[in-house]
Write a structure and sequence with these properties.
129 residues, mainly alpha, 0% strand
Amino acid sequence: SFLGYAQFSSWKLVVDAATQHQDVPMLTLLASCYFGLSGQAALAKEAVEKVECVAPREAAYRTALEAVMVHGDLRKSYDLWVEVVRAYPTDLFACKFGQLMALLSGHGAGIHEIAALAKPEGPLAPYWH
């Protein structure tokens, strides 16, 4: 792919990797997204709460996911995803999850607002390279 990411065939790969590599916070956070979106609220909450973040982006993801997975606050989660996208405008996952939070919270304009922030100012580079 253009940014150096490989497409995965299923969320099971993310969940399995998170189970095997519990020392990688981003994997656990992505697994939490899967659990939350698949109706496994208790697992989503547990995954978010056990993450110990080192990097600023991981901490921002954790805070945004905690807002929705632990506290059920869709709009707060949206606002936090906006902050992630402001800090990392090429983070498509943060943009798309923020759009989902906007949609689910009834904040239709937010879908476009967060997308407008996702404009890279410099050269494109993958997060992990």
